[in-house]
Amino acid sequence: MDSARTRSPEPPNDLRYMIDASNLSSNIHVLADIPNSSNCLSVAVSPDGKAYAVSLANGMVNAYLARNEKLIYTCNKREKNHSCSATSLRFRPWGKGDVNPNNLILATFTNGKVKTFHYPSGECVHQFNEHRELLTCEYSQVGDTFATSGNDGVLNVYDDETRAKLISYSPPFYENARFRRIYSIAYHTQSVDELVTGGWDGVVRYYDLRISHMIKQFYGPYICGEGLAIDPTGRELCTASWRMKDSLQLWDYGSGQLIKNISIPTSRSLEEYESSGRRGKRRSMSIMSLPRISSSISSPSRTSFTQNMDSVNLLQLPHMLYCCRYFLSGDFIVFSGSNHNSVAVINKYSNEIVAAVSGLRNSVYCIGAYGPKLAVISGEHVGLVKAFLNYA
């Protein structure tokens, strides 16, 4: 893992073809596959579901219309190729009195800048510099405050209207500074004053903006992306960890006690996989084109999209996760990560995967969700898919 979740560029194949149709479950419909100018690090969907945006490793932010995948505007063009990555972004939620959408995006950058963009015009309407490497940001449920954190583990909370810093929380001392890195912030779904953080030190910390210090913590999750999610009732916390065992877990929000490890179905247990002795061998896997690609683009042969993968079938690899979200009714969780390079929807009660896209060219760092639609980033691509689920 490097500091900004960036990766070396892939070989110069035509990356307009992200998803192999044979790796789609029958209830997943691909709506779009859009290439960008650099690796995607974060994705978000607007409060009304009419737009979505991606942050890129070259420092740019692209916003798209969901109805026709049209690029609305590229924000932050001046940062392009400036050794600066846009690590995280969020659409500003609609406040209680908002009648019309505010069309604002909050974004953080590795050069310490926090910027707010009016995405229909691409204009930066506000910015300031925290003078540290920023890795994540999050809005409260009503958009009155937002929080940022990064490589030093400090959590800063700001008033959204005035940009005044309301409070700052410092992490415990670590001799190894890498353990201070915070990759995920989640506001409580029923309280604008409560939020939690997670990162490389394996600790989930609780904060209340009415109290000047951390209120409690629990150990366990190894968070390397947007791997914290609080369910709509506010009683449950889901974590996604970048590790081979117990990567998807449910916790009681109030007590911090583990409710269950969600067993993600694979054809082998971790112990069987590790003892197989086949981890070093390689095989190749084909990537096919999407049905939405324009007929004016000639489809290359399947052999030009071969990519080295582990010798074990994808379903035999343990899931190592970057991101999780509660989905639809809250009875489902959508998660993504590496090894499988997949995004999947799982029933949290039965542990049954009910929809999935697997075998992408790159790891899936982040997911955005609105209703049954998912925005998925993998390498330089953002894909828009729709899951058809039967639920009460």
Structural write-up:
Helices cover 1% and strands 42% of the residues. By secondary structure, it is mostly beta strands. It has one domain (21-289, 301-387): YVTN repeat-like/Quinoprotein amine dehydrogenase (Methylamine Dehydrogenase, Chain H). It has a four-stranded antiparallel sheet with strand order 1-30-29-28, with no helix packed on it. Strand 15 (194-199) and strand 16 (203-208) form a beta hairpin. The longest helix is centred in the C-terminal third of the chain and has 5 residues, at 270-274. 44% of the residues are buried. The model is unreliable at 1-17, 267-271 and 277-314 (pLDDT under 50).
Quick summary of this structure?
By secondary structure, this protein is an all-beta fold.
Offer a few descriptive terms:
392 residues, mainly beta, Methylamine Dehydrogenase, Chain H, four-stranded antiparallel beta sheet, 1 helix, 30 strands, globular, disordered N terminus, WD40_rpt
